[in-house]
Description:
Elements: H1 2-23, H2 36-49, H3 64-79, H4 83-98
Helix pairs in contact: 2-4, 3-4
Amino acid sequence: MYKILFIFALAFLFVGCMDVTKVAPKINTLGLHQNIAMLELGRDVYINQCTKCHNAVRITRYSQQQWDNEIMEDMILKSKLSKSQAAAVTAYVRAVLENSVTLH
């Protein structure tokens, strides 16, 4: 019984780790060569800070307009991000959306 639970937990963990790149793609997959440090910080904030209250959703699930007008401002205020964290996560989300054509 414990062996089955262990295998199930391990499989769940493995699948969960793989999904992070679909939810929040790595910077090097976006083909960008500028502001890498800020975009990496934005990805880190998205993965680690945003998930303190809820699961991270695939960025491309929402349009740029939805992120700008409905999501980002409210979430930044609720999560109490610093100005640099807010700027970084905003830049990261925009970079993913602008380069999502290359991700499909």
